[in-house]
Amino acid sequence: MSTNIKLPNRQTSYNKNLAIAKLAVKYCNDAVQFIDRLGNSTYHNQAFINLLGYSTEQINSAGGPYSVFADPDIPNKIMAHFDQKEHWEGNVELFNNIGKRIQFFLIITAVKNFNHEVITFICIYRTIDNSKTTDNDNEPFLKKIEEAEKLARLGYFSSAISHEINNPLSIVQTKLFFLKRRLAQVYPQKNDESWEYIEKIDQQVLRLSNLANSILQYAKHRVKKDFLVNVNQVLMQTVSSFKEIIPASIKLKIDLEPALYLIPADETGLEIVFKNIILNAVEALVANGEIIIKTKNFSDKFIEIIISDTGVGIPEETLSRIFNPFYTNKKKSGCYGLGLSLCENIISEHNGQISVNSKENVGTEFSIHLPCI
User: Fold this and answer.
1) Could you tell me if 20 and 129 lie in one domain?
2) Count of structural domains, the chain
3) How far is Cα 330 from Cα 332, in angstroms, rounded to an integer?
């Protein structure tokens, strides 16, 4: 058993995910600019260079990204806005490299770390002539900045997991080693039930080690679908790991399709998804209620997994945000939130879909569709 998990530090993870975000917007039609918290321009995509003519070096040497605004008061007003909020949008006018004024519809999002410190500003510019400022027309535009922000934050998410899991895990593993040595002196034949307890702890520590590595793997968008997986077996393994924490007052109903199609998948990744959803269901039920787990062949090309509960439900006004990174509504709806962003990422990497339906004081149902062979 490995005694250490080697995980990247926060800055390394952030740099890697920021590079992914830059690659994602490199060839998009909208002009994209990244500005660091010191006010230096750190990245321009090709569309930005085509529209304004500045490279990052040129705009910084000319006085920085704020110096090209036609109205010099606008940058100060925008920065003051970020003292309270993380998002700004509006019309601005900028000078290009030959002094021509160009009007843009600008959206800026501040990406912050766990200490609520700004680590970068992501700016997306669209020329007014091509911009339709209705909600429907702006949806793809807003989606781009949302995805870029999500990619940048993934590095901080994974590094937080590494710190919060790896350090205490190393201590547990070390103490477990000495407990085994002490127990071997007392019961060398391993005929005492204490050995059974120790072995169970050992197994769960190993599972936790695998979980930590898997979270980092999925934060970096690495999925291995090298094997055909029986989802029924993965679900039963997951349920088995919850036996000791599910109160006796909660009923667990399992209805699995016996001839469920095998799917190309990463078993550990699917287990992460099922654990998150089932744990949320347990917490949403509080003391009693029912959890229902079903599988079926949805069509010739997909299988469906449904995990539902009769818990407190999710308020309608927050339902659309539960897959957002770092969003949580624990006090109101049983801790749906942080883990679901990871779940959505894993299912997406499997070319599948995850959706949720919920009603307050009635319950919540997660539906997952995954492609089969």
Assistant:
1) yes
2) 3
3) 5
